């Protein structure tokens, strides 16, 4: 068997030499001949049965690096994959296949690279290279290139469980929640966001691609834990109830209709994350002695998921208030998902 493997390796190297073209990174015929001589010597050395594992590693690495340096990526991939396939017990197979995956990645062949990164995780013992775990590097790459939510969930969980000191656990839980959301696993979304909020830096962390992870997580968890008894079956029902309450100056009903979590009251230039935007208050303090009016129709900028009702007469300082209605997005509870809530107030004319 060893003789056959040696013969196969020799044939492989010879096929590599014969496939070299004038465009393979050589500036002259002399340079090409020197390359072929070096590779032949290395191949001969590789066939030495008495070679120690470390020496064998050095020879294989040199052959692969020579091919890479002369831009013979296909030949390098062929050599390393053949070696890994014919020597499944090689301690360094994780490294050889990492080189293969990286080569495919550099050539823009992400699906093939993904296959080899996965193969390393499933079938190769972890190694350290450049002070980093190869399994960790594979997971980092896979998160960047994989488009499958189920797979991405697995990668984030592996990072959390196997490499907690190498990543931001806070960010991992936030990103895990997003992947569960893409996959429609709403109980896991809530669990991940709860774990995110338990981290000491949850309120301050800045996560690329997530404008305000803390606000998103807090709103979802608070809403999940609430009674949700202020929601209305439809926008029409909510609009009618609010208009009737305003017409009767019924501040008690308005206070009941208002969302009991994540309700905001702010200017158009403010943000829901502004602490002052979430202050509790009662409509009672603003309806006495004022002549409140509302538009007969919702604002034209309203959409199927959000609506605005212009009202006026609230005070001499800020006369116009817009009631902000939105459709409830909470797939975790089908009975609540798609209902409507009065979620906030915007002060002043619409920008």
Give a structural overview.
By secondary structure, the protein is an alpha+beta fold. It contains 14 helices and seven strands. It has helices at 2-19, 29-46, 53-69, 73-86, 93-106, 110-123, 134-145, 149-162, 169-182, 186-197, 213-224, 235-247, 251-257, 284-287; strands spanning 128-129, 132-133, 264-267, 293-294, 306-312, 320-327, 340-347. The chain is elongated. Mean pLDDT is 88; it is low at 1-23.
Structure summarized in a few sentences:
The protein is an alpha+beta fold. It has helices at 2-19, 29-46, 53-69, 73-86, 93-106, 110-123, 134-145, 149-162, 169-182, 186-197, 213-224, 235-247, 251-257, 284-287, and strands at residues 128-129, 132-133, 264-267, 293-294, 306-312, 320-327, 340-347. Helices cover 52% and strands 9% of the residues.
Question: How does the SSE layout of this entry go?
Answer:
Elements: H1 2-19, H2 29-46, H3 53-69, H4 73-86, H5 93-106, H6 110-123, E1 128-129, E2 132-133, H7 134-145, H8 149-162, H9 169-182, H10 186-197, H11 213-224, H12 235-247, H13 251-257, E3 264-267, H14 284-287, E4 293-294, E5 306-312, E6 320-327, E7 340-347
Parallel strand pairs: 3-7
Antiparallel strand pairs: 1-2, 4-5, 5-6, 6-7
Strand line-up in the sheet with most strands: 3-7-6-5-4
SSE pattern: HHHHHHEEHHHHHHHEHEEEE
Largest sheet, if any?
5 strands, mixed
Bin the helical content: 40-55%
C-alpha Rg (nearest Å): 32 Å
Task: Tell me the number of strands.
Answer: 7
Amino-to-carboxy terminus distance: 78 Å
* Poorly predicted runs of 5 or more residues: 1-23
Give the overall silhouette.
Answer: elongated
β-strand percent reads 5-15%
- Counting helices, strands and paired strands, the structural category is alpha+beta
Tally of individual helices: 14
Report mean pLDDT, rounded to a whole number: 88
């Amino acid at each position: 068997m060893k003789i056959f493997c040696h013969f196969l390796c020799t044939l492989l190297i010879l096929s590599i030499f014969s496939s070299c073209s004038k465009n393979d990174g050589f500036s002259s015929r002399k340079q090409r001949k020197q390359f072929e001589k070096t590779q032949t010597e290395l191949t001969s050395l590789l066939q030495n049965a008495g070679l120690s594992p470390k020496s064998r590693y050095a020879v294989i690495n040199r052959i692969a690096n020579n091919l890479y340096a002369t831009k013979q990526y296909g030949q390098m991939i062929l050599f390393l994959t053949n070696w890994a396939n014919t020597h499944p017990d090689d301690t360094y197979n994780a490294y050889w296949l990492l080189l293969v995956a990286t080569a495919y990645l550099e050539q823009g062949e992400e699906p093939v690279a993904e296959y080899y990164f996965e193969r390393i995780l499933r079938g190769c013992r972890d190694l350290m290279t450049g002070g980093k775990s190869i399994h960790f590097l594979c997971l980092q790459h896979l998160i960047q290139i994989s488009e499958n939510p189920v797979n991405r969930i697995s990668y984030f969980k592996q990072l959390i469980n196997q490499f907690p000191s190498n990543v931001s656990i806070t960010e991992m839980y936030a990103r895990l929640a997003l992947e569960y959301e893409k996959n429609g696993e709403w109980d896991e979304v809530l669990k991940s966001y709860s774990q995110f909020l338990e981290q000491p830096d949850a309120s301050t962390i800045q996560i690329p691609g997530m404008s305000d992870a803390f606000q998103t997580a807090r709103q979802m968890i608070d809403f999940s834990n609430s009674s949700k008894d202020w929601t209305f079956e439809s926008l029409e029902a909510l609009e009618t109830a609010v208009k009737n309450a305003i017409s009767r100056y019924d501040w008690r009903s308005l206070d009941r209709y208002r969302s009991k979590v994540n309700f905001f009251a702010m200017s158009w230039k403010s943000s829901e994350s502004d602490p002052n935007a979430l202050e509790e208050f009662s409509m009672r303090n603003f309806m006495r002695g004022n002549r409140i009016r509302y538009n007969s129709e919702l604002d034209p900028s309203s959409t199927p998921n959000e609506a605005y009702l212009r009202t006026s007469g609230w005070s001499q300082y800020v006369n116009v208030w817009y009631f902000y209605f939105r459709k409830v997005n909470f797939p975790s509870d089908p009975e609540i998902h798609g209902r409507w809530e009065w979620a906030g107030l915007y002060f002043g004319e619409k920008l």
